[in-house]
Amino acid sequence: MDPLTHYLGGWLAGKRLHAAKPYWKLLVFSALLPDIDIFLIVFGWEYLGWHAIYTHTLAGIAGFALPLLLIFHFLYKVDMIKAIPFYLGGFLLHLFLDIFNWQYLIGYSQRFLWPLSAQTFNLFYAFGIPPYSSLGLSIYLSIFTMALITFLYFILKKDYPWALWNEEIAFLKRMIVRTKT
Question: Is the pTM here over 0.90, yes or no?
Answer without folding.
Answer: no
